[in-house]
Amino acid sequence: LYGVCRGNSGLCGSSCGENKVRRKINKNTADIEILPSTLRREIRKEMYTMIAIGCDHGGFVLKQEIIKFLESAGYEYEDFGTYSEESCDYPVYAKKVAHAVADGKCEKGIIICGTGIGVSIVANKVKGIRAALVHDCFSAKATREHNDANVITMGARVIGPGLATEIVKIFLETPFSNDERHIRRISQIED
Prior knowledge:
The chain has 7 helices and 7 strands; from the N terminus they run ββαβαβαβαβαβαα. The chain has helices spanning 37-47, 60-73, 90-102, 117-123, 137-147, 161-173, 180-190, and strands at residues 2-4, 21-24, 51-55, 77-79, 108-113, 131-133, 151-155. The longest helix has 14 residues, at 60-73. The chain is globular.
């Protein structure tokens, strides 16, 4: 992934003002928050082609808040429902998100229900999914670095929108560590 120098952007270390590729950015280690917002959106689109998101009726309101964050941060997403607070069955939507990630249609997934527990159980039954129930920032970072989680689940009755948004941000921006011990442990999960 290459950054484009737009003068004073910090990518090339000068204020040349030229619109040229000046330095390669490692998308797994770059601190993209220091870059201009338009460039951050471009980098995020390169990092994650599509985010799958879904919920049941208990997670609908929180899902709408997460969608606002995804849009403002420049992430592309596909909303797999539900689309109202009318009572519904959480396995339907958890399976849709999990299969979208497992099949490669989306790179990461976010599923929300009342507690996050039910959708986590459902998602983890889909081969290739490593779903983590996350209600704090430390776990969001650790599950990406150590478990290479590709789906997070949250409970709308457990956390509020501010914390949920921060958790999603950390989850989407934290790379897998690629440490041998973590790779070995993940392979044991998938066997």
